[in-house]
Amino acid sequence: MRKPRRALALAAVVALALPLSACGSGGDDGGSTDASGKVEGDITFQTWNLRANFKPYFEGVIADFEKKYPGTNVKWVDQPAEGYADKISADAAGGTLPDVVNVSPDLVAPLAKAGLALDLDKAAAKYKKEYLPGAWASHEIPGMEGTYAFPWYLNTGPLFYNKSLFKEAGLDASKPPKTYDELFADALELAEKSDGKVATLANVPTIEDFGRYGVELMNKEGTAFAFNDAKGVELLTKYKELYDAKALDSQALTATPESSGKKFLTGAVAMNPGSALDLGNFKKQAPNLYKNIGITDQITSTGKVNMYVMGVMVNAQTKRTPAAVAFAHYVTDAQNQMSFAKKVAIFPSTAGSLDDPYFTKEDGTDETRVRVAAAKSLKNAVNYTPVLFSEQMKTELRNSVAKALQGKESPKAALDNAVKACDRLLQQQG
Amino acid sequence: MASSSGTARVTGPVARVRRQLPTSPWLFAAPGLLVVGVFILYPFVSTLVNAFTDRRTLIPGEFVGLANFRELLHDEMFWIGLRNSTLYVLGVVPALVLLPLLLALLVQKNIPGIAFFRSAFYTPVVASIVVVGLIWVWLLDERGLVNSLLEAIGVGRVGFLSDQWLLLLSAMAVTVWKGLGYYMIIYLAALANVPRELHEAASVDGAGAVRRFFTVTVPAVRSTMVLVGALSSVAAFKVFSEVYLMAGPDGGPAGEDTTLVMLVQRTGTGLTGRVGYASAISVVVFVVTVALMLLVLRADRKEDA
Amino acid sequence: MSVAEKVRESPAVVDTQRRPKRVTDEHGRRIRVWELALRYLLLLAVLALTVGPFLWQLSTSLKGPTEDIFSSPPKFLPSDPTLHNYERVAETVPVWDYALNSLKVATANVVTNCVGAALAGYALARLRYRGRKVATLVFILAMLVPVESIIIAQFTTMRDLGLNNTLIGVLLPACIASMNVLLMRNAFLNLPYEIEEAAFVDGANAWQRFLRIAVPSVKGTLAVVAIFAFMGAWDDFLWPLIVLSDPDKFTLTIGLNYLHGTFANDERLAAAGTIIAVAPLIALFACLQRYFFRGVGEGAVKG
């Protein structure tokens, strides 16, 4: 009987010891918020799916930094697009988060709440004025003091449309829709004329669509969601109408950004949001579409287009706070953002950079036209997606919207349920 | 390790030696037990413990008793997940018990080139599920090969990847497609043990192929069928990759195609993951799979008696 | 596991190449021509179903940028085959470095699984000691654990051992899979006791019996375990993604995932990526299939 009993005892010890080790993460508070010391030591910098296309650029930036601050050594790691949040959460839970991390605002929020993101209003306040005020503010967390990441690149883009599909439906291809009413009217027209074969939109409304439509997404205090107001219900009702008329693609409920891009490429969908980056893609992959491509502004009811913000945060537990802060600032400073922007169709978040001739002078090509228009619209653009809107909340909203579109619930009931579920998740985030 | 050989030296009569000193067998099993214990069971026990806490990814939890399990009862998504995982078992298992058997009968005869066919039928098993997912999403795409063919023969395009039920069916089809070769091999091994006298006797009696299948083949491989049933039902209930890859992380329109393990993944991972709640779902999955296994094995034992 | 014990096996799938040329069934009788034709027809139909999708993927990956890959009716053969897509994959991700990492992990996984599973399987099947049933139960339970749900706990364990971000960390959790242990156990159970009993009388100890008699008799099952181990390590995605952070250490499946993010719209490139991922496995399997089928014949894959 000796062996089994020992095995049992071992199991018991394991079970007892477990909660301790399981909760032991994040206890070790090695870092300091003081960034004023000497910039030196080894740090790790993690980016999000940028190695494949921009390896030389980042190697250059790192080499320059190491030259500027002798005694520093930056190790660059890049993670694939898929599973990035999983990767960060495993690292965060395991205490192995890199010193400097490429994040988006919704990733920063839980990290900041767990005390893993450095408050830059304290540690790097002197750099604040170098950035566009809106961009700097995008990494503030409702309910918390401070800003938790340097703003990095911004992105926004026009709405592309397929002129030949517009023409076939008897619409004036030189007059794309400018308002939501026009958009909905044109979409219904296109669906009717093509006998349901051509949809105009490929995606169900997301939280940013509600924002752009002018819906108040959260209450003023940032403690509860509010997108189930009359305006929100109105938008969803409109989408339901489009879905029933096949003006919203029948596969929209399961669409991903990739799949809807593909549909636009193949002429199954008449409009698709995109960026200057997509133009090259069209040219290469769908030359016929490229000849017929129309470009128009994002449609909003608020006059402010949506923008995506990328940030660079500093791990609050880094052992090398001065070097980490210095590097996070270095990557995102005006000069480096500008040279990055010239490599790829993104926009710098540093003050004044958007006034550079590169973003204001047209040279007649479509690429430049899109870039100049986007840069102009960025000056008052908004990141509509609330910082506290987690992956689980996005899923709740998508599922509720799908139920409304399928007619299983009324738009009002669906949004009420979504708000209720999101509020509960918000409270659980604590 | 070498030292253990000394302890196991045979000194007495065979019957007595079979009951060895305990040290050596444990040393044989030690590496396996260690790996499984440290990297599977220990994390699993920690998951069990978490099921009774409100732990989140970045926030250590507190003991909450049965609160997570109580919440499950009122969670619509949990019931959808339970429904889909159960449907998956019901849909996939009969196909995986029957089709590979027929396939094994087809490749059993040693006709020229049969080795090639056997290997070829096994290829889907070899490929990674991620690759298989990508291939089938591409095939079943609205403008993919299958729909192009359907349109060419006048059926018209079918929304395999957009309709709630078609999605689940497509995922089941992929599971069956990928599993065919695997279970075919198991049957092939079992069929080789069917004494040829049985078939010959039946032939002499004038039994046709169909009747021989039911009177000779099926009874002879019955216990293998039960085994395949047990293995495939456990795997089917834990289905994740096929549905995740084809229906997307949300689980199809309005999440209606979510399976239980997908729900575990969705609620428990990411920076805002509810580790405690997701662990509670894992516990349910575990309990059901163990129950399924016992059920199938017990049914077998009863029939035997 | 009582089922498995009940089914006694003998070598099943006979090697076809060495058979005489005459077309016969498994009982040595002639097969009628129409029946033969029907069989081949069915075989070809199943072949189209099982291998067709891979060929379609291959065809897509060989189509040039100007060729319409969405056409209806579909074109099965590329009109102007090109390896351009493969070049682009190699330019985008260091495919060879990643393949080498995958190879390292997969090879190590084969070794650890064969050795560890054979040892443990032997202990479960042949050696008598108290707690054997418990040990068997441990492996069965481990097989039932849904891996997706314990991955974070696994990661925390790995970090406590200081092995995250190493290829060893990638290897360890599956380096002796319980499925393989149970496979080996069944193979050993199916060996007649008499063989070993003779060795008992000769005074051989457990180690000698294991190495000289038992292991050589289950080579086929070892081949099955080897293939499963190689496949498992080569195909795994989520775990290496979680445990590795250094791109120099990425395995092929993670590396190829870059394609998905970077060229999401390009079916041709994605197709080339999947072919790169799957081709080595198919080649390996083609080489080992003879041993593999023999191994299965030993009753190996019986749970």
Largest interface: B-C, 113 and 116 residues
User: What's the tally of helices of chain A?
Assistant: 19
Radius of gyration of chain A: 24 Å
Report the principal-axis shape of chain C.
flat
Tags for this entry?
heterotrimer, A: 430 residues, alpha/beta, D-Maltodextrin-Binding Protein, domain 2, 2 domains, 5-stranded mixed β-sheet, 3-stranded antiparallel β-sheet, 10% strand, disordered N terminus, C: 303 residues, mainly alpha, MetI-like fold
Please describe what this structure looks like:
The complex is a heterotrimer of chains A (430), B (305) and C (303). Chain A is of the alpha/beta class and 430 residues long. Chain A has two domains: 41-156 and 307-378, D-Maltodextrin-Binding Protein, domain 2; 159-305 and 384-429, D-Maltodextrin-Binding Protein, domain 2, CATH 3.40.190.10. In chain A, 47% of the residues lie in helices and 10% in strands. Chain A has 19 helices and eight strands. In chain A, the strands form two sheets. In chain A, strands 2-1-3-8-4 form a five-stranded mixed beta sheet. A three-stranded antiparallel beta sheet of chain A has the order 6-5-7. In chain A, strand 1, helix 2 and strand 2 (72-79) form a beta-alpha-beta unit. The model of chain A is unreliable at 1-30 (pLDDT under 50). Chain B has 15 helices and no strands. With 305 residues, chain B is an all-alpha fold. In chain B, helix 5 packs antiparallel against helix 12 (222-237), helix 9 packs antiparallel against helix 13 (241-247) and helix 10 runs antiparallel to helix 11. The longest helix of chain B is centred in the N-terminal third of the chain and has 33 residues, at 76-108. By secondary structure, chain C is an all-alpha fold. Chain C folds into two domains: 9-83, no CATH class; 89-297, MetI-like fold (Orthogonal Bundle), CATH 1.10.3720.10. In chain C, helix 3 (84-92) packs across helix 14, helix 4 (95-125) crosses helix 13 and helix 13 (252-262) packs antiparallel against helix 14 (267-297). The longest helix of chain C has 31 residues, at 95-125. Chains in contact: A-B, A-C, B-C. Chains B and C meet through helix 1, helix 2, helix 3, helix 5 and helix 6 of B and helix 1, helix 2, helix 4, helix 5 and helix 6 of C.
